[in-house]
Amino acid sequence: MDMRPDPLIMMTTQTAQATVAAKPKIVARNVNVFYGEKHALKDVSVDIPERSVTSFIGPSGCGKSTFLRCINRMNDTVPSCRVEGTILIDGKDIYDPALDPVQLRARVGMVFQKPNPFPKSIYDNVAYGPRIHGLSRSKGELDQIVEASLRKASLWEEVKDRLTDSGTGLSGGQQQRLCIARTIAINPEIILMDEPCSALDPIATARIEELMEELRHNFTIVIVTHSMQQAARVSQQTAFFHLGHVVEVGETPQIFTNPTDKRTQDYITGRFG
Amino acid sequence: MASWYALVAVGLFIAGYILAGSRARAVAGGDYAGMHSLPTYHGLYTASLAFLPALFIFICGSFIAGQLATYSAISALPENIQSDVLRQGAALREAINIVRGGSPAAASAEVQSAAESYGSVLSAGQWATLALGMLAGFGGLSWGLSRVSMNFRARNNFEKLVHGLLWICATIAVLTTVGIVFSVVGETYRFFFDPDIKGKPTVFEFLFGTDWNPQAAMRADQGDIQTAYGFLPLLTGTLLITTIAIVVAGPLGLFSAIYLAEYASPRMRAIAKPILEILAGIPTVVLGFFAALTVAPYIRGWGEAFGLEVASESALAAGVVMGMMIIPFISSLSDDVINAVPQSLRDGAYAMGATKSETIRQVILPAALPGIVSAFMLAISRAIGETMIVVMAAGLAANLTFNPLDAVTTITVQIKTILVGDQEFDSAKTLAAFALGFVLFFVTLVLNFIALKVVQRYREQYD
Ligand SMILES: Nc1ncnc2c1ncn2[C@@H]1O[C@H](COP(=O)(O)OP(=O)(O)OP(=O)(O)O)[C@@H](O)[C@H]1O
Ligand SMILES: [Mg+2]
């Protein structure tokens, strides 16, 4: 049986090996999530280190998005959803009743699986967060934030002449980059990305991956991806989800070259999906 | 007669469906994949070919038969009755009643003979219609059957029939509207320009006159009060009451829609929404006496407590109750459009750290705006067109005022007042109702046009 991983992954993992931060930013212990009767996440315990990229991989429906949505308490907006267990950010329990989820979400930004720009102009989409959080003192400063965010999301060149056009009029891939720009604009400590590149072409994907590489020096990034190559290229840690369990979590090179669990091995060698 | 006809037509439809379907199955001999259209379509096509001509002939035939019968009844009447329009109409109605089974004994001999000729022509016409219809139906049926074959495109042809049918329905709807508009415009033209009508105002007097008193001509005892057709007090009355209604219903309706859509638990929503909709089902007469007997005295007492002069019938009472009437239009429609805003937009805003009210104000309401504007427009149209509440609660006095505590009257109320009771159709007073109707129609049209523009502008900006 050929269990050797894809040589492409082997190559790229070496570059990603660079830094593995020690201090955990997010600590999850025994997290269980229920949608009504459905038990979607089972006893998930993961540490996510500061200033690095962590990728979640796993077959469809295994609970990656669900776990991501626990980290910024987006699951609060789903009436049938119940979360048990502890999730700490910087040592503080984010499910503490005294904590304000609105403020939490300003620190933990999120890019969704499907692009969801607001029905406003491109400029207003990006300026939305800075405005509600009072991040700029003047129009000029706001302009700067908008431009910098759009540049980081590598959308600036395409939209700089039509900032007043509606954000919903952009193509799917442009919309997704707009959503990324919108999230960076509030300067969150943690950025959660749910398959951010699934609607992007290879060039835009490469730019977003560069962006993640750049951002990880200051931010903690968690990305859900179905592309093993992408996980290997951009992330330092990888967690493998399967049927609501975290089967294996570890440094990316180790997960891809030397997985300890049979299910992980089968998944990354493409034996089941 | 009509029921026989319906029976035959339905029989033709079923026969066409079954016969063509089974013939198609026989032709196919099991090879449905090699057949252009499935047997069901052959059946439907032939059934329509049999049914539609029969239906068409019924509609035309019964109309023509009725006309012919009336004509023959009139010519059976003696000269002196024929020449007098009123007596002719009365005799004709009597004759038709006899044919339909009234009491023949009471009628005069002339009417009897008219009734006989009416009855015989009518039944002959109906039999002819039935015969023609059956002929056309069987013709269509056999033609449809003859076309069943492997390659016949029954599916596409049926599609064309459906297309045609829908076109006819749409055309009838449009023509009805056009017909109503033309009749109103025509009568309005007569009101202003027909030289035979006495006591009519000029267009300028009508549009800018400040006195409305169409009744004066009828009452000799009123001495020096002049007939006047100044439309301004009616316009201000209408606008005043509508404005009050929207000021009451706009915020209440919109905010309750936001509450129902965004804050209420599913259980609360399931209870509250139907209750709000019941409000829309209360007859306006009931709301009218509620306004007149409960709200108006209350407002009056309250006003007097503050030392204000309040008429016992006031624009405020009518406007407030009218506002209650239109709350469900605004709340129910707005609730639907707010619910239709995709959840992903809410998620996007929450994930940016927006609070619930920020999300609603900055993301959801702008996205739902076109729908909300339409809801308001519908509500305003209802308010402008509402008559009963105003009649009962705001009085009939055509005061040119913007004071909500005065009695006022509206365009619709005056139309109603003018046309209640026996009227001569040719007097200036009666025709004034058409002029009012025309203006009302025009005002509503302008409002709808403005709303459309608003919606389009925001569409461009937001979609
Ligand atoms: N709002 C919801 N209500 C009920 N069940 C849900 C809801 N959201 C997710 N689930 C269920 O929870 C499980 C995990 O879903 P989740 O969206 O986390 O999967 P995923 O790993 O992100 O899959 P994908 O890769 O396809 O995005 C699925 O079985 C799904 O049916
Ligand atoms: Mg997902």
Oligomer: heterodimer
Give the total of domains of chain B: 2
The most extensive interface, with participating residues per chain, is: A-B, 31 and 22 residues
Please list the strands of the largest sheet of chain B in the order they lie side by side: 1-2
Uncertain segments of chain B? none
Gyration radius of chain B, rounded: 31 Å
What's the N-to-C terminus distance of chain B? 57 Å
Main beta sheet of chain A, described? 6 strands, mixed
Strand-and-helix sequence of chain B, N→C? HHHHHHHEEHHHHHHHHH
Tell me the number of helical segments of chain A per DSSP (H or I, 4 or more residues long): 11
Structural class of chain B: mainly alpha
In the CATH classification, which architecture of the largest domain in chain B applies?
Orthogonal Bundle
Fourth-level CATH superfamily of the largest domain in chain B: MetI-like
Bound molecules: adenosine-5'-triphosphate, magnesium ion
Q: Kindly state the percentage of residues in helix of chain B.
A: over 70%
- How would you write the strand order of the largest sheet of chain A? 6-7-8-3-9-10
Task: Using the coordinates above, name the CATH class of the largest domain in chain B.
Answer: Mainly Alpha
In round numbers, the mean pLDDT of chain B is 85
Q: How much β-strand is present in the residues of chain A?
A: 15-25%
Report the principal-axis shape of chain A. Answer: globular
Q: How much of the sequence of chain B is in beta strands? A: under 5%
Summarize, please:
The complex is a heterodimer of chains A (273) and B (463). Chain A has helices at 7-16, 64-71, 101-107, 122-132, 139-152, 156-159, 172-184, 202-215, 228-234, 252-257, 262-268; strands spanning 24-35, 38-49, 53-57, 81-89, 92-93, 108-111, 190-194, 220-224, 237-242, 245-251.
